[in-house]
């Protein structure tokens, strides 16, 4: 998230919080696709991480991008920490370890998403390559220790870094050593949100298997195919994971609000300053817990929006739905991730088919699949079917949805070809992580250094 929200509208009751979510509902004609992707910057001479400061640091990249694009800088205590397009059509931000993120504009098609990501990567290369910097597209940092990983000067990250070790063993790894590709998608009503949320929660582990690309840590195989996904199993279970109430027949906005209210907060922002609020939940905040501790210590809608951005379930509900299960990866995967989910969720026939496929899946079964996928990938199973079997069916449904959408580019091609890299995974029967491990044991000579060549932007 590039910039935290400021909205001083007071909150008088919890009903308003559900209304806030419901206000995200849009007619189908207004549905858009917002894609986010992160990558690790590194110095090409030795594959070392890039610090924030210095003439060849991340600050220099951001300043170069600002000069090139004319985007507005986001400043935190005197440091540039991101850029935002003046009309809100996209932003560049920094994750805690320097991971460089594009939060894309809301677009109509995957064709536009690919053009956007191509343009962004070309722009950032133009600035970074003269500095001897390139970017690595993987789900986990394959080489650097946590101590070697730089830390970005962003106030909210200081609060999170202090809090994470109190609630799980892998929170700092999540913050500093992982990258993802995500897509944000719209809904038309509470019923439409429910259908999309339930399908996407059930199928999120299939996406994790298809996109698994984090098999190395600190220069060696880590025993997992998606180390990034496994990290989320012990980061902060109060605010992450598969949420059981989503499986309820009548799940709605109010249910998500009730859960979110009892999750500890990270911060409240007042007049540009972040106040550590990890000792209270949002419900306690609403009941006056911070009234005397911070300036203007009663909650407003900006506080609520910011709190929602600090929740990390498999699918996150804001005024849209965020798909959070995929590892970062090369350029083709940046296009494949939104194609996968748009095909499943933005076409009525495809969404009904995905519902039929997953209708009787229980919370316990979905949780068990989610627990197996980081290590087993496509070999994980639900009932008597492997993730590989399910992925084949799910990709066919996604292809159907993209075909039905019939969004053509200038050459007359629809969006289905963006699924090709995932269909290759299914045809091969092995994840990209397993292919990388095979290379590590053969052509790479038991070294992760070649990954910085093969998976660099």
Automatic annotation (TrEMBL):
EC numbers for this chain: 6.3.2.2
EC category name: ligase
Transmembrane segments: none
Pfam families linked to this entry: GCS2 (PF04107)
Pathway annotation: Sulfur metabolism; glutathione biosynthesis; glutathione from L-cysteine and L-glutamate: step 1/2
Gene Ontology MF annotations: ATP binding; glutamate-cysteine ligase activity
Reaction(s) catalysed by this chain's protein: L-cysteine + L-glutamate + ATP = gamma-L-glutamyl-L-cysteine + ADP + phosphate + H(+)
GO annotation terms (biological process): glutathione biosynthetic process
Disulfide linkage: 114-335
Record-linked InterPro entries: GCL_bact_plant, GCS2, Gln_synth/guanido_kin_cat_dom, Glut_cys_lig_pln_type
Keyword annotations from UniProtKB, A to Z: ATP-binding, Disulfide bond, Glutathione biosynthesis, Ligase, Nucleotide-binding, Transit peptide
Subunit structure: Homodimer or monomer when oxidized or reduced, respectively.
Similarity comment text for this entry: Belongs to the glutamate--cysteine ligase type 2 family. EgtA subfamily.
PANTHER family in UniProt: GLUTAMATE--CYSTEINE LIGASE, CHLOROPLASTIC (PTHR34378)
Function: Catalyzes the synthesis of gamma-glutamylcysteine (gamma-GC).
Protein name: Glutamate--cysteine ligase
The organism's taxonomic lineage, starting at the top: Bacteria, Pseudomonadati, Pseudomonadota, Alphaproteobacteria, Hyphomicrobiales
